[in-house]
Amino acid sequence: MEPVPMLLAMTYRAMGDQFHDRLAQIGLEPLRPAHGYVFRFLKARRATTVDIGQHLGVTKQAAAKIVNELDEWGYVIREPHPTDKRAQYVTLTTKGRDYLKFADNLWSDLESEMAEAIGPDSLATIKTGLTAYLQHVHGDDQPGLRPVW
Amino acid sequence: MEPVPMLLAMTYRAMGDQFHDRLAQIGLEPLRPAHGYVFRFLKARRATTVDIGQHLGVTKQAAAKIVNELDEWGYVIREPHPTDKRAQYVTLTTKGRDYLKFADNLWSDLESEMAEAIGPDSLATIKTGLTAYLQHVHGDDQPGLRPVW
DNA sequence: TAGGGTTAGACAACTTGGTTGACTACTTTG
DNA sequence: CAAAGTAGTCAACCAAGTTGTCTAACCCTA
Fold first, then answer.
1. Where does this protein have coiled-coil stretches (chains A, B) (predicted)?
2. Domain count, chain A
3. Residues of A with CB below 8 A from B144's CB?
4. Which of A31, A143, B35, B59 could, after both became Cys, cross-link B31 (CB 3.0–4.6 A)?
């Protein structure tokens, strides 16, 4: 059998392919993966462009480009930082939150289909196993979902 | 708990980070991910540049660049195709096979450490579960490990 | 078996998503 | 209060991909 890392990659790729197929079918504006990672990051915390760059693992200039796009397209807005006059908080608009919610539903559908295919017990074991591993690696401050290049 | 696809991505990313850290420590020439995918593809089958492009999901021109690099660096050679005078088979050299073997050992180490962290039974269930899902999705012709970006 | 459509690979021009570097305005620290 | 550090922007560059074009070889069919 294939080693675990390959199985993880193959499975994620298989689910990701279906995810994008369905997004395309629905006709929802197809954002690039980086945008999704930003949405997910902003959902949890307030963040500046620099924070976003750090999370994505790119320079602040690259992050700024992405934030500019998302702003132009209406998915995020920039708000003045309450205490630091240099900085701006980037936050999701309603449109941004809606897109994220829609994507989450799609992922959730795929998870359900996996449960049907391999059985809910199997799925549950996988989830707790992976979660335990992440706990083992990162301890108590999980970095969250970062790009898998 | 996070949905499965995110768990898959986070776990793969966590393992990948460790993989690259260790590669760098050893001081082995750091190839890019695409090269790894090519090695793994060539291990199983004889392939032309076009085949490689298809597998990676890029144009044949992009694939040709990668193959050129790998050739210059001594990881692959091009051999005349036995029946088609236009085409060339790309095959791994000893250096290429050695690199792949080394990488496989590293991945295997990471799998062992996962087994320690979450228990071998848990790991086994994960592997059979993911394998079953891939069987469910792709049926009998598995596309193998393709890039996840 | 000739001829038309297709395919492998090479070459060139261009696009894109990132990089490094420099600068201003503001903040933090000694 | 001065010096060092940081958020964000502008500009130049780079790398990895793209499209488009071409030649030589292949393959089908009438």
1. none
2. 1
3. 10
4. B35
* CATH number of the domain where residue A65 is located: 1.10.10.10
**Does B1 map to a domain?**
no
- What confidence tens digit (pLDDT) does each residue in A68-121 have? 999 999 999 999 999 999 999 999 999 999 999 999 999 999 999 999 999 999
List the single residue in A with minimal CA-CA distance to B135.
Answer: A117
Q: Hey, is the C-beta of A44 within 8 angstroms of any chain B C-beta?
A: no
Separation of alpha carbons B84 and B102, rounded Å: 34
Nearest protein residue by Cα to C1' of nucleotide D25: B86
> Would A115 be classed as within a structural domain?
yes
The tens digit of pLDDT for each residue in B5-26 reads 999 999 999 999 999 999 988 8
Domain boundaries, position A45: 30-125
| B82 inside domain | yes
**B83: nearest nucleotide, CA–C1' criterion:** D26
pLDDT digits (tens, 9 = 90+) for A8-64: 999 999 999 999 999 988 878 879 999 999 999 999 999 999 999 999 999 999 999
Query: DSSP class of residue B47?
Result: B
SS3 A62: helix
Whether residue B148 is contained in a domain is answered as no
Give the alpha-carbon dihedral of A58, A61, A63, A69, to 10 degrees. Answer: -140
B111 interfaces chain A, CB cutoff of 8 Å: yes
Q: Residue B88: what are its φ and ψ, rounded to 5°?
A: -135, 140
- Among the partner-chain residues B2, B33, B126, the one whose CB lies closest to the CB of A4 is B126
**Contacts (Cβ under 8 Å, ≥6 apart) of B117:** A132, A133, A136, A137
CA atoms within 13 A on the CB side of A142: 18
Nucleotides of D strand lying within 7 Å of any protein CB atom: 6-12, 16-20, 24-27
